Amino acid sequence: MASSSSMTALKLNAVPISNPNDTAKKTETVDLGNGSDVVFIQRLIPSDQSWKWFHYLDKHIPWTRPTIRVFGKSFLQPRDTCYVATPGLTELSYSGYQPHAYSWDDYPPLKDILDAVHKALPGSSFNSLLLNRYKGGNDYVGWHADDEKLYGPTPEIASLSLGCDRDFVLKKKPSKKPRDGNDEPASKRLKKSSGRDDQHTFKLKHGSLLVMRGYTQRDWIHSVPKRAKAEATRINLTFRRVF
Ligand SMILES: O=C(O)CCC(=O)C(=O)O
Ligand SMILES: [Mn+2]
After folding, report:
1. Cα dihedral sign, 132-223-179-35
2. pTM of the model
3. Which residue ranges form the domains of the chain, and what is each CATH number?
4. How many angstroms separate the CA atoms of 100 and 84, rounded?
5. Which residues in the chain come in under a pLDDT of 70?
6. SS3 for 2?
7. Which atom of ligand 1 is closest in space to residue 79's alpha carbon?
8. Which InterPro entries match (predicted)?
């Protein structure tokens, strides 16, 4: 039989070595209904590491502000962007713009960031990344869904935020007009679908990770609205899997 001292050692070894705060990373899951959900980890990356990545990306990423087409009109995209993807994937194209795909090897810290995101989301496997840089509260992303075909019917999109806090708003798409001759005006249908459960706002802080899953891109739209008080720069990385 084991001596009491080795029993003690056994017991000590059985205690998990990980910091208990690691498991208390304040993960919130919001069930949006009908197979859509959002997972929000408020403090995934510690602040000092997040600032290191922020400064590296701010300085080294070849940011561009492309001209895009929305509803037949040309606009300067209201934020800087850059695209990174594993070679050989279907090319991304949105709003009449096809970004050049840089490689993960071009900016090695991106691989460390990808590892940290994969570690937080076991079973996920992202192979592309769209980066955004908001240079102040006038920069924004308008209402949209990331429903491009290359992401498949139920894309998982993991969004890491660095720098200035910004609001991220999710809003349910208005339900389609029924085909059974019900000709209720669209304004009425919109009003009906603007209840409390049809809109959610998340404060995306430095080092936070927000993940959209299931049918979120089919049934919901999202935006990062202009915010007069958000004066500082924010960098956002959205990881996606191209099929
Ligand atoms: O900046 C964000 O948090 C969201 C960006 C976004 O929705 C996108 O790039 O598709
Ligand atoms: Mn998006």
Report:
1. positive
2. 0.85
3. 40-240 (2.60.120.590)
4. 8
5. 1-24, 177-196
6. coil
7. 1
8. AlkB-like, AlkB-like_sf, ALKBH2, Oxoglu/Fe-dep_dioxygenase_dom
